[in-house]
Design a protein that fits this description.
Helices cover 69% and strands 5% of the residues. A hairpin with a 2-residue loop joins strand 6 and strand 7. It is globular, with a radius of gyration of 27 Å. The chain is mainly alpha-helical and 541 residues long. The C terminus is likely disordered.
């Protein structure tokens, strides 16, 4: 006989089961994991932007362009007493500089305002990578891949090396800085997604969008033109030889349209500079490119291989690359699409190792993409796990699901271990040495003095007149030319700054500093020297 108590108990159990079922459905839903992914990205991308990471040389270069644009109306570097160096001595990334200048215009000039633009680009890159990988492999792989992308870099693999986590050249380290790699990846990944969508019955508007997005990629980081462009051509060759699925329009439309943003940007440069100055500008760009982007030097290869090994590329990156290449063996559009990211990653890594100057920053895109691809084999193994603890325990007791459990543990550790350290760094690490030295300069020098300097971050952080070495000297430094000659006293500076980059390149030899200058103060790695006049140097001699 059923009692009133039994009826109430049964109803309570049913309600709890329904609630448990509802929670389970939420936890295994795409919306839950996507929301969690974006929340984690927002946390590590958007807080304490002025304090971490430390502002650096390249960041100061970009920031100075944006600062001069909004304050003086010139897209240029100011290099007194010389004329303006319009558009800079390398890539000047209008897709990065213009939004930052707009932020300066409405919210004032500052590092936080600039890095907020970078953080937005980082969020965009995560979303672009998600929609692309979701299109290729489904949302579970996309969610894990973007989680691995967020922690990609040395932080991802330090656990395998048994060392301390290193934040430099990781996604978060670069995404919080004013640098071109993350914005370029945003446009490239979104362009690839649009390109794949355009393959379906030749959807022209998708192909047009893909071409324009690839063009914005090249404008943002011109080095990507040398990487993404050849990969697009290689995809066409692979299709002709193996898949035979694409039509001529699939490649022709994006390639032609990708030239429009570049054409507009270089046409604008020509209009501003004039033919003669524009020709000199192109020569400078070519010299910088040959010294950094295309540098075949076998003597440097062992150091680059060591960098890749220390970042466990052979453990993490190659796993994702080889697995997704295996999936691309199927001779259909799905297989052809699956070949794009591993080929792109391999080409980035090969360019870094064999053809570039070998700066670790150049390896980042290839390492980040390959880290994300490692999600696919993990998700395929994890997908074998049954839903529900009771079923899971039964399968484990029967001897199955061991590899699925191992993959689950690896995925949790690969994301969770570096993520907790990234959060700690973002919330607590602070290095404001450049800001402190800039404040020291302003406190101990007059506003109208001329300061010889190679550290571009100081131009942005302080209101002083700085003279920088010419582009020709910069190229000599990139090439480590033993015959380079540079006299920093030609323009009669009142002070000289010897910082991280000038010390690292030996721009100002110790013998010269001892003869011409007197050190008046130091903050961290920065030294400020007062330049002695001719009579004082003669008396000292």
């Amino acid at each position: 006989m059923t009692t009133e108590f039994d009826t109430a108990l049964g109803s309570s159990i049913q309600r709890r089961l329904r609630r448990t079922h509802t929670v389970s459905r939420i936890v295994i839903s795409e919306a839950f994991w996507l929301g969690l992914l974006l929340a984690a990205t927002l946390l590590v991308a958007g807080v304490r932007l002025g304090d971490y990471p430390r502002i650096c040389f390249d960041e100061g270069y970009y920031l100075q362009l944006a600062k001069n644009l909004v304050l003086h109306g010139e897209y240029a570097l100011v290099n007194p007493p010389q004329e303006l160096d319009r558009f800079g001595l390398g890539n000047s990334s209008p897709t990065l500089i213009l939004p930052i200048a707009l932020a300066f215009r409405f919210f004032g000039v500052g590092i936080v305002q600039a890095r907020l633009v970078s953080a937005i680009y980082l969020m965009g890159a995560v979303v672009a990578g998600y929609v692309l990988l979701r299109h290729l492999y489904g949302w579970p792989t996309a969610a894990l891949a973007e989680a691995l992308f967020i922690v990609a870099g040395p932080t991802t693999v330090s656990l395998f090396q048994g060392g301390t986590l290193i934040s430099e050249f990781s996604t978060i380290w670069m995404g919080r800085k004013v640098l071109g790699e993350i914005p370029a990846l945003f446009f490239a990944l979104l362009g690839a997604w649009a390109w794949f969508r355009g393959w379906e019955q030749v959807r022209v508007w998708w192909l047009i969008g893909a071409g324009l997005l690839f063009g914005l990629t090249f404008v943002t980081k011109e080095q990507f033109l040398l990487i993404v462009g050849p990969v697009l051509g290689l995809m066409w060759i692979v299709d002709r030889l193996y898949y035979r699925r694409l039509r001529f329009q699939h490649l022709a439309i994006p390639l032609v349209l990708s030239g429009i943003p570049l054409g507009i940007w270089y046409g604008y440069k020509l209009a501003v500079l004039g033919p003669e100055a524009f020709g000199r500008h192109l020569v400078t760009l070519s010299e910088v490119s040959r010294a950094s982007t295309w540098l075949v030097d076998p003597g440097r290869w062992p150091a680059r291989f060591s960098f890749l090994y220390n970042n466990a590329f052979h453990l993490v990156g190659l796993t994702g690359i080889l697995y997704t290449l295996a999936l691309s063996m199927r001779r259909d559009l799905r297989g052809l699409k699956s070949s794009f990211l591993p080929i792109l990653s391999v080409w980035f890594v090969c360019w870094f190792a064999f053809l570039s100057i070998g700066w670790p920053r150049y390896a980042y895109p290839g390492l980040a993409i390959s880290s994300a691809l490692a999600a696919k084999p993990l998700v395929d193994l994890i997908g074998e796990l049954p839903v529900g603890l009771r079923h899971l325990w039964a399968r484990v007791r029967s001897g199955g699901m061991i590899w699925a459990l191992v993959a689950t543990v690896v995925a949790v550790v690969a994301v969770g271990y570096p993520l907790q350290d990234l959060i700690r760094q973002v919330l607590f690490d602070t290095d404001r040495t450049p800001q402190e030295f800039a404040a020291y300069i302003e406190a101990h020098t007059e506003p109208n003095v001329l300061i010889e300097n190679f550290e571009w971050e100081l131009d942005f952080l302080s209101e002083r007149h700085y003279h920088h070495p010419s582009p020709e000297v910069f190229v000599q430094l990139l090439r480590n030319d033993p015959n380079r000659t540079y006299d920093p006293l030609v323009y009669a500076p009142d002070y000289l700054v010897d910082g991280i980059y000038s010390k690292g390149t030996g721009l100002y030899p110790t013998e010269l500093l001892e003869q011409c200058c007197r050190r008046v103060g130091s903050v961290g790695e920065y030294d400020l020297y007062a330049v002695l006049d001719v009579e004082s140097r003669r008396d000292d001699g």
